[in-house]
Amino acid sequence: KSKIIHLEISRKGTKPNPRHEMLPDFREKKSSVIMISGGMPNPNYFPFKTASFTIEDGTTIEMGEAVMKRLKPLGCNIIKVPTDKHGIIPKALKEILSRWRPEDAKKLNNNLPKFLYTVPNGSNPSGTSLTADCKKKIYQLARCYDFLIIEDDPYYFLQFEKTKAPTFLSMDVDGRVIRCDTFSKIISAGLRLGFLTGPKPLIDRVILHIQSSTMHASTFTQVSAIAQLHNYLTGLCLKTKVMEFYRTQRDAMLAAADKWLKGLAEWHVPTAGIFLWIKIKGISDTYQMIVENALDRGVSLIPGQSFSIDSSAPTPYCRASYSFASPDQMDQVSVTAGAVHHWGDLHDQILLFL
């Protein structure tokens, strides 16, 4: 029999906000937080699905190389910041900023970087996660040179270590951090529902943009999220189970990589997220290998050049995602490919894992 679910939404409901019950950090309402709720926009809180940043031509921003390509069409000056297994290298960022004097930040129309964009945990595609020490050093540079930090942290709840690194937002004493969170990674990717936290003057500008564009996120999407996060215990259980699932996926991927790619490639163990960034030894570019070999065998990988601002430049990297395949499938693909290729040339050996 068909069931009809009746949802009654009241603008004067007295129930506590379910997100406050799930996240202790958000129990106290702040005017700088965009709340997720139904109805028409109001001066303080407003639900949203996506945010679009308008950047003036010539504005300088800093970010890791992998995300630069996405912002290239905006016409801003993008500075590549070198990274390592932990993400952005503070020493390298400091060297870049040394082109300017800190006092120049007080001058109007200066060409200092206006903001740093970073994915601090499980960054796509590298899977890197900034340590607490790195974040502290980066934040001090932001204070010294007076630029904003956009902390895009969709994989925050997919951190596999027991102790989570503090967020940039938790360090912020100047009102220079805008934090982006999402429910897409702990409830459902199809929700496309998130929220911003940051200084009220900046958040107010986002509210004005949303009011004149999308108005608000889908009401059904909001109600679906609320149903999942109805109480604090449900939220805790949900995010813990999701994290444990992806940690199991990560471990299975690492086991397969160690079994079939040892000596042929190198990688860093991701401490968060859903990606493994692999550097193939002995070749300068992975594009041809993936397009002509991996895809024909039903293996979907992303060549490294897809994440570079110069998509024509060769790169020995490729990105694998462990979000979908089961541990058995990961190993079975490796065993099947190994039986077919009998450990042939380098490309065939690589495909044992791919």
From TrEMBL:
Its cofactor is pyridoxal 5'-phosphate. The keyword Secreted does not apply. SUPFAM superfamilies: PLP-dependent transferases. Residues 87-331 form the Aminotransferase class I/classII large domain. GO terms for molecular function: kynurenine-oxoglutarate transaminase activity; pyridoxal phosphate binding. It comes from the Eukaryota. Keywords: Aminotransferase, Pyridoxal phosphate, Transferase. GO terms for biological process: alpha-amino acid metabolic process. Pfam families: Aminotran_1_2 (PF00155). CDD domains: AAT_like. InterPro entries: Aminotransferase_I/II_large, Class-I_PLP-dep_aminotransf, PyrdxlP-dep_Trfase, PyrdxlP-dep_Trfase_major, PyrdxlP-dep_Trfase_small. PANTHER family: AMINOTRANSFERASE (PTHR42790), KYNURENINE_ALPHA-AMINOADIPATE AMINOTRANSFERASE, MITOCHONDRIAL (PTHR42790:SF19). This is Aminotransferase class I/classII large domain-containing protein.
